[in-house]
Automatic annotation (TrEMBL):
Residues 27-108 form the Bifunctional transglycosylase second domain. Residues 385-622 form the Penicillin-binding protein transpeptidase domain. The lineage of its organism: Bacteria, Pseudomonadati, Pseudomonadota, Gammaproteobacteria, Oceanospirillales. InterPro entries: Beta-lactam/transpept-like (IPR012338), Glyco_trans_51 (IPR001264), Glycosyltr_51/Transpeptidase (IPR050396), Lysozyme-like_dom_sf (IPR023346), PBP_1b (IPR011813), PBP_transglycosylase (IPR036950), PCN-bd_Tpept (IPR001460), UB2H (IPR028166). It comes from Marinomonas rhodophyticola. This is Penicillin-binding protein 1B. Pathway: Cell wall biogenesis; peptidoglycan biosynthesis. It catalyses: Preferential cleavage: (Ac)2-L-Lys-D-Ala-|-D-Ala. Also transpeptidation of peptidyl-alanyl moieties that are N-acyl substituents of D-alanine; [GlcNAc-(1->4)-Mur2Ac(oyl-L-Ala-gamma-D-Glu-L-Lys-D-Ala-D-Ala)](n)-di-trans,octa-cis-undecaprenyl diphosphate + beta-D-GlcNAc-(1->4)-Mur2Ac(oyl-L-Ala-gamma-D-Glu-L-Lys-D-Ala-D-Ala)-di-trans,octa-cis-undecaprenyl diphosphate = [GlcNAc-(1->4)-Mur2Ac(oyl-L-Ala-gamma-D-Glu-L-Lys-D-Ala-D-Ala)](n+1)-di-trans,octa-cis-undecaprenyl diphosphate + di-trans,octa-cis-undecaprenyl diphosphate + H(+). It is found in: Cell membrane. The keyword Membrane applies. It comes from the Bacteria. Gene3D superfamilies: Biosynthetic peptidoglycan transglycosylase-like (1.10.3810.10), DD-peptidase/beta-lactamase superfamily (3.40.710.10), Penicillin-binding protein 1b domain (3.30.2060.10). Cell wall formation. Synthesis of cross-linked peptidoglycan from the lipid intermediates. The enzyme has a penicillin-insensitive transglycosylase N-terminal domain (formation of linear glycan strands) and a penicillin-sensitive transpeptidase C-terminal domain (cross-linking of the peptide subunits). Residues 121-291 form the Glycosyl transferase family domain. The keyword Coiled coil does not apply.
Length: 712
């Protein structure tokens, strides 16, 4: 028995699943923000508004400003100290200041835990050290559960005798005489059976535990072990995890009445669960407060004030499983470096690139817009969707939505819905033409009927409007998604070259190049489409998509850092010119509805619709995000929506909720913009009217210029 006590206590006491964390939320000076959005964000991340804004985890607001004492945190980049910041709003822009009035470039809200890996059927727990335990909580626990904790040797003879008398008098078990040490032994070592043999074993093991270990070690283990709730298949253990679950805040930020509520639950976790039985839980909390008053630990005034406090539980809407699809990506990436048992039991901390604001906005946008479409056309009932949002520059995946439902479905369409991409293939195709140096966005091409022999069969592509448009500029052909002009361009540069470009941009799925691929007969998942567009969106700064940033152990030691590879055989200039050409789609092409929604936003876009309208696609690229949206039916049936009338609406909804910024005006070395006459390949003077501003790879721009001054 002695060996069992020591080995269990000194070994790994708890098998705790790995915790997955979001990226820190970076608030940048000058970014578009409004006051209400910032207040909502602070509340969502567990900051409490009140008069104690000088305390960590608290915030305050006036009519024009918000202040917050931001929490410290540790991640793979090191320790980030807590800081007080004042936020004001000028013309829709955020201004961040220190207490002395100096403007600050950025402020960071700590990473948020978004879930566990392989923790669905295990325990929910956060491990505390002795120094982590708030002293008020320790004092309340001892006052209520074991006043003689620091004097006894594991058992209380007076307590056991008192319980024996009460139980004998009533003829049933009405009172327990267990010390905190005995409760810990019962939870860690023994079953819940009620026999004299088991009770005797409990007594002996409690004495052994006290003999081998200090009171500090025992109370710390108790704080981590105590059972406080059942959450589906997961048991909630420890005060730290309970604080996050019930109050949405770290344990050290709770008030006395909140500590009293948690301590009160120890006696009956199911009986006093505040979510299920709020009145009963409040009465139990007030009973604990009465004990503190009776022991002289609370004044009459404080007691009368605290018993009137509402429970103030955290809103459970933020615990809905909106991160399930993202966790699929995390598990997929880590499976190459860590075995499942390690991830399920070793309490690793996994830091990812998920942006909780972007994830929530993407999930809600998908739900809202699919509901709108289904209501508009009952034949769309069962419409599904997926969305992948990446950081435009770094390629970190910021959000993943795998279905149009309100909860995680288990089938992640962002990874598993492999469908024809339609006109989303066109920007890479036009990039291929620009890279040859023979074509520019001004170059003209015939949009006319074509006929191809494919495998002994005749293939005659058509435009969506079943019309031809004669000679058009390349930027017009792409913006308006002209199929005939596009396939004619592919024929001129060579279909094999187009296939090579797709592979160079990141398409790893095998495909056979034939003319129809130039119009989107290439099947990819939304995640693969996002990877295809990343080099273009980032203008060559990133090519792979990143999910996990780093893994740390429970002692804050870095175990593995994940670095992205960047290898794109195209110059930054040609990628930037391609991206700039895509900004014409909202201005004159198939994404005009998106431009109307954001008239002052400079962004790039491409719509996509496949044969028989079975798939609705949209790619939108702003200054901060590159987003891919897909809508379709799991049974692959024709739909009544196109890329413009379906997926585009999801992107518009999403973008309205993430404070978008425009693409930068500057182009990298090797590229520049010129105003060019519509009718003649000449640089246009300011006075010229019929002109268009286009980006060029330097050396391919017009060599002549026109003053547009004609003598009469």
């Amino acid at each position: 028995m002695n060996g069992q006590v020591v080995s269990r206590f000194e070994g790994q006491k708890w098998q705790v699943p790995s915790e997955v964390y979001s990226a820190p939320i970076v608030l940048r000076n000058g970014a578009p923000w409004n006051k209400q959005d910032l207040e909502d964000l602070l509340e969502e991340t567990g900051y409490r508004f009140g008069r104690n804004s000088q305390n960590v985890g608290w915030a305050a607001r006036s009519q024009t400003k918000v202040s917050a004492h931001l929490r410290s945190y540790i991640d793979h980049l090191g320790f980030h100290k807590s800081e007080r910041r004042i936020f004001s709003f000028q013309n829709g822009r955020l201004v961040i200041q220190a207490l002395n009035g100096d403007e600050i470039a950025e402020a960071r809200i700590e990473p948020q835990r978004i879930g566990f890996l392989y923790g669905g059927n295990t325990e929910s727990r956060q491990i505390l050290t002795y120094d982590d335990i708030p002293k008020p909580l320790m004092d309340i626990l001892i006052a209520v559960e074991d006043q003689d904790f620091y004097e006894h040797w594991g058992i209380s003879l007076t307590g056991m005798a008192r319980a024996l008398v009460v139980n004998f008098t009533h003829g049933s078990r009405r009172q327990g005489g267990s010390t905190l040490t005995q409760q810990l032994v019962k939870n860690m070592y023994l079953t819940s059976e009620r026999t004299y043999t088991r009770k005797l074993t409990e007594v002996v093991m409690s004495i052994l535990l006290e003999y081998h270990y200090s009171k500090e070690a025992i109370i710390t283990a108790y704080m981590n072990e105590v059972y406080l709730a059942q959450l589906g298949n997961s048991a909630l253990h420890g005060f730290a995890a309970a604080s996050q679950h019930f109050f949405g805040r770290p344990l050290n930020e709770l008030n006395i009445d909140e500590f009293a509520l948690l301590v009160g639950m120890v006696k009956g976790p199911s009986l006093y669960n505040p979510e299920r039985f709020p009145k009963r839980a409040k009465d139990r909390r007030n009973m604990v407060l009465a004990v503190l008053k009776g022991q002289g630990r609370l004044s009459d005034a404080d007691y009368n004030r605290l018993i009137k406090q509402p429970l103030r539980l955290a809103s459970k809407k933020k615990e809905r499983s909106i991160f399930g699809d993202y966790l699929d990506l995390v598990a997929m990436q880590l499976s190459r470096d860590f075995d499942e048992s390690t991830l399920a039991t070793k309490n690793l901390r996994i830091y990812t690139g998920v942006d909780i604001r972007a994830q929530r906005a993407a999930s809600l946008a998908m739900q809202r817009q699919v509901q709108v479409l289904e209501k508009r056309d009952p034949k769309l009932r069962g419409l599904q969707g997926a969305m992948v949002v990446t950081d435009r520059l770094s390629g970190q995946v910021r959000a993943v939505v795998g279905s149009s439902g309100q909860v995680y479905t288990g089938f992640n369409r962002a990874l598993g819905a492999v469908r024809p991409i339609g006109s989303l293939v066109k920007p890479p195709l036009y990039l291929s033409a620009l890279a040859t140096g023979r074509f520019t966005w001004w170059s003209k091409i015939e949009d006319k009927k074509l006929r191809f022999n494919v495998g002994g069969k005749t293939w005659e592509p058509e435009n969506y409007d079943r019309q031809t448009h004669g000679e058009v500029h390349l930027y017009e052909a792409m913006a308006k998604s002209y199929n005939l002009a596009t396939v004619s361009l592919a024929q001129q540069i060579g279909f094999d070259r187009v296939g090579d470009t797709l592979r160079q941009l990141g398409v790893k799925r095998p495909f056979t190049m034939h003319p129809a691929v130039a119009l989107g007969a290439l099947e990819l998942s939304p995640f693969e489409v996002s990877r295809l567009y990343q080099p273009i969106a980032s203008q060559g700064k990133s090519s792979e998509l990143g999910v996990v940033l780093a893994v740390m152990d429970q002692n804050d030691q870095l175990m593995k850092r994940f670095d992205q590879h960047n290898d794109v055989p195209f110059t930054d200039a040609v990628l930037a010119v391609t991206l700039d050409g895509m900004t014409k789609t909202p201005k004159i092409g198939t994404a005009r509805a998106a431009q109307a929604a954001f008239p002052n936003l400079n962004f790039a876009a491409k719509t996509g619709t496949t044969n028989q309208q079975k798939d609705s696609w949209f790619v939108g690229i702003t200054g901060d995000y590159s987003s891919t949206v897909w809508l379709g039916d799991d049974d692959n049936v024709p739909l009544s929506i196109t890329g413009s009338s379906g997926a585009q609406n999801v992107w518009i909804d999403f973008t309205r909720h993430v404070n978008p910024i425009s693409l930068p005006e500057n182009l990298p070395d090797g590229a520049a913009r010129f105003s060019v006459l519509d009718s003649q390949f000449e640089i246009a003077a300011d006075r010229c009217k019929e002109k268009t501003t286009l980006a060029f790879i330097l050396g391919t721009e017009p060599k002549d210029s026109s003053s547009c001054f004609w003598p009469f």
